[in-house]
Every structure is written in C-alpha cells, then in structure tokens.
Amino acid sequence: MSGGPEKVFLVGLDYRVRSSKKDDAGTVTPGARAARQAAQVSGEARRPQQPKFSAEESLAELHELAVSAGGEVVGEFLQHRDKPDPATLIGRGKLQEIAGAAAMSNADLIIFDHELSPSQQRNIENEVNPRVLDRTQLILDIFARHARTREGQLQVELAQLQYLLPRLAGRGVEMSQLGGGIGTRGPGETQLETDRRKIYRRVRHVEEQLENVRRIRAQQRQRRESVPVATVALVGYTNAGKSTLFNALTQAGVLASNKMFATLDPTIRAVTLPSKRKVLLSDTVGFIRNLPHTLVKAFRATLEEVQRAALVIHVTDATSPIRAEQDAQVEEVLRELQADGKPRITVMNKIDLMGHAERDALRNAMNTVHVSAMRGIGLDGLLERIDELLEGDPVRTVHLRIPQSEGKALATIEGSARVYSRKYKDGMVELEAQVPESVVRKVGKFVVE
Asked: Domain 227-389, what architecture?
C-alpha cells in the first residue's frame, strides 16, 4: 500500500417497508427494521416515534467516519431494496456493479453502511477485489486510532475481540497481527484465528483489567462524593463540540477536532461557578446512531460518569441539518444508561456559524442555553444556569457580622461565596453574600438571622 490515504468506496442501503400504518410507511434507514422489532418486543414501540436518519444522511455520516479513519472517499453507491439479501445483503447483481465501480475508482476498501453477518462478509469478499468492512468495524477502527490511555486501549481491544470471535473462520493472517490500513488495527495478539481459546483467555484477561479500572474509578468517585462537589457530565452526538466546550470552561487543553470520536478517554476537571461553588466537569465519548453494542459494553466504566452525575449537559450542534435525529440518538443512549431522568441543560452550540439575524433571535430558556464554545459566546450564561440547577450543596443569601480579627473566616467567605455588599463598623465586617450550605456550616456563628 502506498503512503497516501486508503481509497474508500462507500455502499449505503435504503430499505423500503410496506406497512398498513400510515406513520410507518416510507423509507427505513439501515438497521431500523431490527430496531423496530426489538422495540415492539420490549414495549418501546408505544413511545412517540423519534426522528430517523434518511439513507442519504446515513451515507453522509459514513463518509465523515471514513475520513476520520484516515480514508479518502473515491465513490459512493446507494442501493434501494425492499429487504436485505440474506447471502450478500444487496444482491449479487448489484454486488457485481459495485465491484466494477470500485475497480474503476481504484478503491482499496469497500465499506457498507450496515452490519454484515460473517457469512455475508465472506460472500461479498469472494466477489470483489478490495477489502470489505462494515460500519461497526469502521467505528472500532476509529476508536483504536484515537484511544490514548491504557483504559481506552483496553476498552477498544475488548470490543474488537468480541466482534472478531464469530468472524474468525476464513479470515486468515490479517487478524493475527497489526495492519497498516483501515480496519486492520487488530488487538495485536498472534495467531488469534488458529486458537479460539487464546481469544477467550485474552477476553477474560482484558475484562479483569477493566474491572480493576472500574473498581479504581468507583474508589475515586467515592472519595469525590465524600466532599460536597457535584459532577456535571457533558454528553452529545459525536462532533457536537463537547471537547471544545470542555476546554473553554476548564482550560484543560483536551484534544478538540472536527473529526468524529476525537475524544475517547474521559477527562474530569474542576470548574468554579459564579456562586464560587466548585463542580467537576466530565468530558465523555460522543454518541452515534447504532453504536455497536460491544462498544457500549466495553465503555461501561467510562459511561458510569454519566450515570452518577448530578447534572447532564447535552451539547448539540445548533447548525446541523439533522439535529433532531442526532438528539433522538442521544436520548436513546441516555435511556439505556438510565440517565434520561436526570436534571439536564441543553446547550445549543456553534451559534457563531449562524447568520447575525438568526443569532439575534435566539433566546435562552430555563433548560436551554445558546453558546459558541469556539468563540466563548454565552459561557457566563451557561455557568449561571448550572449554578441554578445544581441541587447539591445549595446556596443561600445570608447576612454575616465577622470580627476583622477572624481572618480565616473572612478568607473562607471571600474564596467560597459571592459577596454582594461589605461594610466596616466597630471592628466588624458586615457582609451580605450568597453562600453554599457547606460554607454556612463553617461560619454559622457569624450569621445574623
């Protein structure tokens, strides 16, 4: 393979489903039929219908994912079918057509916007010359590329191993070593394809290491929760601007990129609110539609930060034409994490990309704030709103009379409270301040009722 980016040919699928129900008629995106069947089994079909990605929008997202993986997209093909072909997903006739188009484009790789069964992937590979990946493999590859910490690498490796297990037959040497192209960043274990027991052993070992990570996280969380410092979790669709907002609020210097899944490893930093209360802000991995189950399971330790947060900040791209669909996917993941009932602020990000008239018409609401994390617009309003919605260690306005000789008490108020007025009289300092309850307990003897 040359030193340049791999040339990628994308294949999207558009399933048309005939139904007697008017609201079910029309186009169904890849995987939607299975999702609907699962919803009917679980009773979720009774929920209001969520916006769905169109086949074109889904293919555009696959394009972004391929670019994030380091590929150069040289062609796209959107196949319309009533139902998937059990052998090749798209039918042998269309497969030959795609093989010809990929050859004309000199493609190194064909990526399907759908999860392929092991037999489908083998059948397709027998018909085409380029390597074949499905959407799940592409996301796993991006995660492998971006994982920096040992924890992140373990989580990705576990997801890769669990995905590879049913796909070992006929895979050959490519699964036994690290490769140099998209989808070939394997876990690095030798001879995986020849000995399943080695894989199972490795899976158990990685799970044990991740359990240790989870235990350490639990201990760290327990220490954090022993002091009155709340955790605020940033969540949102991938590339909504979470890391840029995180950096703007904390000056943490976390990698912020316009590529999907630039952030994998969770970061927690302290933020001081206008009331002088401190909170811990947690940056999390971005969500995406049809996030592979193996990844959700592998990143359980990371996503627990969302489950235990006192407040969830949902960052959404206010300029995205498919914002409703992306927000619906975030809601689905929050439900899976049982975090959908938590206090929440929706942050409409990237308003700097709007026109002046459109931006001037924006109005914040109790649970909605408009910001530009890149330009630092609206951040003070966001911090005020966080202050208002946090229930832990509530603040209240108190009057205090503190002797000037009580330097420690005065320093505590100055450093931990919002002082509205200050008067000096007869060796005393009279203060009116907004003070967190934990600080009131420390200086209670100076409170004037």
From this structure: 3-Layer(aba) Sandwich (3.40)
H/E stretch holding 421: strand 418-425
347, 327 in Cβ contact below 8 A?
no
Note whether 7-139 and 227-389 share their fold. yes
Any idea which architecture 395-448 has in CATH? 2-Layer Sandwich (3.30)
**315: its two tokens:** 């960052």
Q: How many residues does the chain have?
A: 449
The pLDDT score that the predictor gives to residue 223 is 76
* CA–CA gap between residue 104 and residue 75 (Å, rounded): 10
Element (H, E) at 179: none
Residues 46, 29, 126: CA angle, nearest 5 degrees: 135
Nearest to 440 by CA among 404, 412, 411, 403: 412
Identify which of 253, 279, 284 has the alpha carbon closest to the alpha carbon of residue 387.
Answer: 279
H/E stretch holding 236: strand 230-236
Q: If DSSP codes are grouped into helix, strand and coil, which group holds residue 220?
A: helix
CA distance 207 to 189: 16
pLDDT by residue (tens digit) across 299-353? 666 677 788 888 999 999 999 998 999 999 899 888 888 888 899 999 999 999 9
